[in-house]
Amino acid sequence: MSRGPATRGTQSMARRVVAATVLALVLAACSRGDAPAAGVDPPSPPLVVFAAASLQEAMDGAASAFRSRSGQAVQVSYAGSSALARQIEQRAPADVFVSADSEWMDWLQARALIDPATRIDLLGNTLVLVAPNDGDARAFTLSPGSDLRPLLGEEGRLALALTDSVPAGRYAKAALDSLGAWEQLRPRVAESDNVRAALLLVARGEAPLGVVYASDARAEPRVRVLATFPAGSHPDIVYPAATVHASGHPQANAFVHWLQSPEAGAVFRRHGFIVR
Questions:
Q1: Residues 192-208, buried b or exposed e (16+ Cβ, 10 A)?
Q2: Apex CA 157: angle with CA 187 and CA 174, to 5°?
């Protein structure tokens, strides 16, 4: 028996009602998932921090502590200070910059790319000579006239960060030069993009010696410290921090301020840094 027009019209209307109901439920679910409740501010986007590679474990810990205290998510990008500063110059979306030396922060400040009112000298560090943990070299005292070539062997290289741009490499070159060792070691140097890359060469046994920060040596169980460079052999190691001028993040200044807190200081000390 064929159905009449009234029956078909009733079924069509029923289908439209069901479809409309399903659509309303889907839209309501999306609304509940995407929109904040009335009177509640939407969450801030992650705070983006550009930090020197040597800060990795310490800044990860500090960022986690800040998030626990404030509820603000923090995303940290690590690289050599020179690379990060140039990325900020190219308008990379960073909110806070923490450099491993004052020169790159000065470079950004001269270009009005950081907020000088927020700039602080946050941390210090020491410079050390490291070797693979399973090697035979013994600890010794570095002094003018120290010859590191016997420890390198016939073909070994001294692992350093880039000596013309990366802070750790510049500190290392200055220290070796002040001890009268740079010219003899220059042909034996293996330069890396950042201090953690130089550390990795030693940790893997690809270089018998490397010059890194004391905090780096603490972070890598596959290396051990043979000697500490005298403080006067290189410029004072300073880690400045500041808010990036282009940042509009509401928590950027608060994060820089919090990095000076006792809670953050405890994190940095635990990882081998000097709190200033």
A1: bbbbbbbbbbbbeeebb
A2: 65
User: Do 150 and 226 touch, CB atoms closer than 8 A?
Assistant: no
Residue 113 tokens read as 């790319």
Per-residue pLDDT band at 41 (split at 50, 70, 90): low
Best CA proximity match to 51, nearest among 221, 259, 236? 259
| 67: Cβ contacts below 8 Å, ≥ 6 apart | 73, 74
Q: Determine the Cα angle at 168 with ends 120 and 75, to 5°.
A: 55
- pLDDT over 70 (residue 148): yes
Instruction: Return the residue matching tokens 């690590």.
Output: 78
Report the length, in residues, of the chain. 276
Q: Dihedral of CA 190/271/178/138: which sign?
A: negative
Angle in degrees, 0-180, between the axes of helices 56-70 and 262-270, rounded to the nearest 10: 150
* Burial status of residue 35 (CB atoms within 10 A of its CB: 0-12, 13-18, 19 or more): exposed
Q: Are 202 and 209 in contact (CB under 8 A)?
A: yes
pTM: 0.83
Does an H or E element contain 250, and which? Answer: none
Tokens of 89: 């110059």
Q: What's the Rg (C-alpha) of the chain? A: 28
